[in-house]
Write a structure and sequence with these properties.
binds nicotinamide-adenine-dinucleotide, 3-stranded mixed beta sheet, alpha/beta, 6-stranded parallel beta sheet, binds prephenic acid, Rossmann fold, about 300 residues, about 55% helix, globular, 6-phosphogluconate dehydrogenase C-terminal fold
């Protein structure tokens, strides 16, 4: 039996449109309704045809939903939740896909005090955004972390787990604060480092004017992919996961200082030992089948 019959997606960008496409592929009888605050995005989503209905207002989009997933930037979660409050059916489950969890849970709880809320985060994405960027296989073999609070009914968590598993994801349950710390090191700080290195290179104007473009087939190119990620989404992630990001950054800058010292004093053993350890980590990731460096990754491949 399907976990839900009528799913509403609010926010029709990369993640929202990927969920809609994946539902259509894996659960074709489920009706998917969508809404986006931007009328241009609504029109593009309608033309792309991955939804059964596009609603002009948030309220109209949820009127008979049994699952509502908020797929907007984390700083907009509170406003998106407030916009559905008056029309949300009392037995609907509300979820989200935000990249940080503690502050999103607070915003959703404040806007929807009576609702059944099961927050989520599919750990899968690309540097692209908008409804054209989504694709149905985005969640295949990837983690989706659910961070239910203690008062969430077990039955709601079980249904949402079944939903994500039907889209091909592996589901893990995590405490929201632990999620925010783990994602700070695995996703948020790596993005900050990429934004910094590309920004630094572009500030060194006489180098970048031609050389950066000319020689960017190397390591720098990988940083530019990450640094091309959506500015609104990432601004919101850093403002909403401030404590965990600052804690990890403190540790990172201490480790960077240690490397600086090793280079200054010609301590090759320290450098070699670290680089050997990190190479083993990369090889472990590939052995587990989680290598994203295949050339087609991040492109629509439905
Ligand atoms: N991009 C990724 O790699 C990735 C991965 C996992 C989770 N996430 C999370 O998914 C969420 C969406 O990210 P995305 O990459 O799909 O972004 P996106 O920019 O592609 O799409 C976001 C959409 O939300 C709409 N929107 C903004 N405020 C709204 C509101 N109040 N009501 C209705 N619509 C609104 C925008 O118009 C836009 O179309 C973010 O919370 C992000 O943290 C992103
Ligand atoms: O692959 C990418 O481009 C991503 O940045 C995806 C990524 C990540 O850091 O792994 C980005 C943000 C998320 O919330 C989840 C996944």
């Amino acid at each position: 039996m399907l976990p839900f019959a009528r799913v509403t997606i609010i926010g029709l960008g990369l993640i929202g449109s990927s969920i809609a496409r994946a539902v259509r592929q894996h659960m074709p009888t489920v009706r998917v309704t969508g809404h986006d605050a931007d009328p241009d995005v609504r029109a593009r989503a309608e033309a792309l045809g991955f939804l059964d209905d596009v609603a002009d207002t948030a309220g109209a989009s949820v009127i008979d939903a049994d699952l509502v997933i908020l797929c907007v930037p984390v700083g907009a979660m509170g406003a998106a939740a407030a916009a559905i409050a008056a029309d949300l059916p009392h037995d609907a489950i509300v979820s989200d896909v935000g990249g940080s969890k503690a502050s999103v849970i607070e915003a959703l709880r404040t806007a929807l005090p009576q609702a059944t809320i099961v927050p989520g985060h599919p750990v899968a994405g690309t540097e692209h955004s908008g409804p054209e960027a989504g694709f149905a296989s985005l969640f295949h073999g990837r983690w989706c972390i659910l961070t239910p609070t203690d008062d969430a009914p077990e039955a709601a968590v079980v249904r949402l787990r079944a939903f994500w598993e039907a889209l091909g994801a592996n589901v893990e349950i995590m405490d929201p604060r632990h999620h925010d710390l783990v994602l700070a090191i695995t996703s948020h700080v790596p993005h900050l480092i990429a934004y910094t290195i590309v920004g630094t290179a572009s500030d060194l104007e006489e180098v970048t004017r031609s050389e950066v473009i000319k020689y960017s087939a190397g390591g720098f190119r990988d940083f530019t992919r990450i640094a091309a990620s959506d500015p609104t989404m990432w601004r919101d992630v850093f403002l909403n996961n401030r404590e965990a990001v600052l804690e990890i950054l403190q540790r990172f800058s201490e480790d960077l200082t240690a490397l600086q010292r090793a280079i200054r004093w010609g301590d090759g053993d320290t450098l070699f030992d670290l680089f050997s350890r990190t190479r083993a980590i990369r090889r472990g990731i590939i052995e587990q089948g989680q290598d994203d460096s295949r050339p087609d990754f991040g492109r629509a491949h439905e």
